[in-house]
Amino acid sequence: LLFPVCNLCGKCRPRDTDLLQPSLNFLYWSLHQTTPCSQQRAVAVLLSNVSLLELLQKVLESTWLWSPPSRPASLSSEDALLCSGWLLVASLLLYQHRYNTEVHQTLSVDLTEVLNTVIFRNKKPVLLLVSIMQFLRAVLRQNFSSSLLVIVGQNTAPSPTQPQPSSLQDTALHPLAMQQVFSLVVSLQNLLVHVQLQKDLLLSQAVVACLETLVEYLYVKNQDVALHIASQPWHRFLLFTLLSGGQKSFLQPEVLRLMTLFVRYQSSNIISQKEISQIIQEAAEANIAELPEATSHALHLFLSQV
After folding, report:
1. Maximum pairwise Cα distance, the chain
2. Model pLDDT for residues 10-40, shown as the tens digit of each residue
3. Residue 297, in any domain of the structure
4. Domain annotation covers residue 242
C-alpha cells in the first residue's frame, strides 16, 4: 500500500491539502506502527520515491510563505499539512540514519528559517511549532550530518545591535552560530513560561526535549559552551516560575526533566542538594502508581541520573 500512496503524493501539489494531509499521515504512521523489519523496508520505499521527496521539499518551503497575520486562530488545513510534512521528514531523518538507507533525492532546509520560527514564533500554531522542533531535534541528534538533508543558511551574521560572537566558538558549533544558540535557549525558556500559563503539556514536552537535545549537541561540539549554557542563572528563575503556578510540586514532568538536565551537567548553581532531596521526598510520599505516565517517566530519568 505504501507504493500507491507514495505515487499519489508525488502527483499532488502542496495546495492539495485535502488529499495530501491524510496521505502524509498514513506514511508517518506506517513508519512508526510497524515491526522493525517492515520499518526498514518502509523507509527504503519512501526514500526511493523521488517525486514524494520533491513534494516534501515544496511542503517544507511553503512553511516560510504563509503570512502570519492571515493565520486563523485554529489550525488551518494548510498548517495541518505543514505539521504532517515536518513530522514525516523528521521521522525519515531518524530512520534513514538508523538503517543507513540509500538516499535517491536530498532535501534542502534553511537552518536560519527553522531557528527563527522557534525563536520568533510569529503566531505560528502550537502544533506546527512542535513539529518543527521535532525536526530540529532530529538534525541536532545527527550533528547536521544526515545524507538525506542539505543545510543552507549557516552561521548567519548577528544584527548590529547584538554582540559579535567568537569565530572560534562559531567554528566549533558549526553550522550553528553562538548568537543563534543563545537566542534559541532564551526563546525556549520564554516558551516554557508561556506554557506554564497555557497548561499545554504537548508544547512543554517538546520545548524541554528540544533544550535537552540542544545541550547534548553543544556538549559534543564544545563542552565549555554546553556547561556555560546549562549553568545560566536565568534557568533558576525559570524553575521558580514553573513552580509558582497552581501546582507547586516538583513532580511536574517539565520540572523533573529540567532538573535532570541540570544534574547531568553539574549545574550546582541552578539545582542544589536541598532541592534534589525535596524531589526525592515528594516522590517517596507520592503514590507512584497514580502518577501520569509523563511524570512517572521523567521521575525515573531524574532518579537514574542522580
Report:
1. 60
2. 999 999 999 999 999 999 999 999 998 899 9
3. no
4. no
